[in-house]
TrEMBL record:
InterPro entries: Appressorial_penetr-assoc. Keywords: Signal. Residues 1-19 form the signal peptide. This is Uncharacterized protein. The keyword Signal applies. It comes from the Eukaryota.
């Protein structure tokens, strides 16, 4: 392909990827528009009792990631931080209303299920009030865009993950290490007509006791943000026992 043709096509693709934002000057300007400044950040919240004073800013913390509070951290810039702390300068974005907050529940396995060791099984999760199936590239766009809501129903645009961690036993009170897990899967497709998604755990799990949990996130993998502090949890957690002595031959 001639170089000039390649460059021309690249420019067209670049412009099309910007979409409507390219035609909106407020979305390509590097200046902070006064209309978005939130004056609640001008003061520390006037804490009382055991409350903590809030950080303050006159410019929406626009340069927080180069302030003394960031400890010189590198910008995330769409990357996951596997080895060190980092700073993300992307706004939080749209905040879901209380009546549209998402929720989910595992249908299988249910609490205290006994599964056969080393045998493939499926996790079934029902998700309500979320526009699922929106899953950006986690290696290029992790936390790289604000949380968005559906124009139609104002529900969070995002997806779910399921994660399984081994615990010592059902009575164990030790805090597990979040870096260690037996199985993890992001669900990049939308829920079915009955509101459920199914995830295969190929080869099952070794003998042991595990906890199964969900993680609902926005499209760019950030935790779902809601407009009220006092609320129920968005995610679900189940315990499953997987003991070889309880297994029958497959």
């Amino acid at each position: 392909m001639p170089r000039y043709l390649y460059l021309f096509i690249s420019l067209i693709l670049a412009r099309s990827s910007l979409g409507k934002e390219a035609r909106d000057p407020t979305q390509i300007s590097l200046a902070l528009d006064p209309r978005v400044i939130q004056n609640a950040s001008f003061h520390n919240g006037h804490p009382t009792g055991n409350q903590t004073a809030s950080l303050t800013s006159r410019d929406n913390f626009i340069n927080f990631c180069i302030s003394r509070h960031s400890f010189g951290a590198a910008l995330m810039n769409g990357n996951q931080s596997h080895h060190n702390y980092s700073c993300n300068s992307i706004p939080m974005g749209m905040i879901v209303a209380p009546e549209q907050m998402p929720s989910c529940k595992f249908k299988h396995p249910h609490n205290l299920s006994k599964l056969k060791a080393h045998k493939t099984f499926h996790i079934i999760i029902e998700i309500k009030k979320m526009v699922t199936g929106h899953f950006v590239n986690p290696n290029e766009s992790y936390f790289a865009a604000p949380q968005q809501l559906s124009r139609k129903n104002k529900q969070v645009i995002g997806h779910a993950h399921v994660v399984i961690q081994e615990i010592r036993n059902l009575k164990c009170t030790s805090v597990p290490d979040p870096r260690k897990f037996a199985f993890f899967k992001g669900i990049d497709g939308p829920v079915s007509q009955d509101g459920t998604s199914s995830v295969e755990v190929p080869g099952g799990l070794p003998p042991g006791t595990y906890r199964l949990a969900s993680m609902l996130t926005a499209a760019n993998h950030q935790p779902v943000l809601a407009g009220i502090a006092q609320r129920g949890i968005f995610d679900d957690d189940e315990l499953s026992k997987n003991k070889v002595c309880c297994c029958q031959p497959a």
